[in-house]
């Protein structure tokens, strides 16, 4: 049976236009004239956008189901309006061979409600050092190669990884962090850190490795994507790399765009890596969004147990959840005040990530029907107790927001409907 979503503002070719979306056998069809026998879903003027794609999430399975599972993580994604996520490889076992990656793929096939594209490791055991994986063996199953959670420390090893990734046509997706510069730090090395006697993570620990890697991209021609950019220096390095025509892209996360170290509190829900940076960094990230240097917003959804997040800034695990409140936060705090247009936000969350990683799904005729309906008038409060994710730690707890996903569909199948859409 065909389903026709009517009375919607649909995002196509960079702008919203009133129209219909017709879906048959999982695909968007060019002919959207309603006929007898169609199921018609009126959307009351709501926005319909290509489903969001989060290229940086931690789904924790196999290995850490107490923190999150493929089932709970993808349910959280669907609720946040995501139709696809790319899953990071800090798992047990780490996906460093087709067999170990296969364990994750089996769970994805069984439990995922949105598309999950796993990354393969760069190094065996995702150690950031030692032996490289077999890139050719992993390439058919991996959306890219990453050791996220760890930087690849040796320049020679990264150069060789880039050569091999380039040879198999997959990107290197880099968590940039120079271990030598960390010196036991766990929050940004800024005013808050000094005032409260903490140990700081300097900005250089990130941008030094971005700088090195961009040099290596020049030598190897590898497609290269920088994870969770948090510093002004990294933004400038990526800007220059793009101007030089290198195949470099990057993402940042909502918390780096909306918070700084001035917002820190002595609670684990403010702790993540990279850390909340200074005001100048946040401004540089917004400038990077404005001029296209930063092409994607990813959440770095990193769930941990309540106990692991209960040990304050010093002792808590690094990582916060993000899937269920990213769009509302960015809509409320960037779009409504006029910092970023809604069109740009959808481009950063849906269009660009799909393009950068060559992923399917969308709302054009012939696309696999992956889409999200947004209610921009819904007003609510971020309440972690209501999350579908097992992770509850977010610095945005209690924030008043506007806008939310009310319906999410993957391959034409509705995988999430909120209360307001239940009877339609
Ligand atoms: O905050 C973080 N959490 N940063 C990382 O690099 C890893 C992640 C995790 O896996 O918890």
Q: Which short descriptors sum up this protein?
A:
binds (4S)-2,6-dioxohexahydropyrimidine-4-carboxylic acid, four-stranded parallel β-sheet, 424 residues, alpha/beta, eight-stranded mixed β-sheet, 29% helix
What's the gist of this structure?
The chain is of the alpha/beta class and 424 residues long. It has helices at 70-79, 98-111, 135-138, 155-167, 191-195, 204-220, 232-243, 254-258, 279-290, 312-315, 326-335, 342-357, and strands spanning 3-12, 15-24, 27-28, 39-42, 47-50, 52-57, 82-87, 115-118, 172-174, 187-188, 200-201, 224-226, 248-252, 296-297, 371-381, 400-410, 413-417. 29% of the residues lie in helices and 21% in strands.
Can you walk through the features of this model?
This protein is α/β, with parallel strands linked by helices and 424 residues long. The chain has helices at 70-79, 98-111, 135-138, 155-167, 191-195, 204-220, 232-243, 254-258, 279-290, 312-315, 326-335, 342-357; strands spanning 3-12, 15-24, 27-28, 39-42, 47-50, 52-57, 82-87, 115-118, 172-174, 187-188, 200-201, 224-226, 248-252, 296-297, 371-381, 400-410, 413-417. A hairpin with a 2-residue loop joins β16 (400-410) and β17. α4 crosses α6 (204-220) and α6 (204-220) runs parallel beside α7 (232-243). It is globular, with a radius of gyration of 21 Å. Bound molecules: (4S)-2,6-dioxohexahydropyrimidine-4-carboxylic acid.
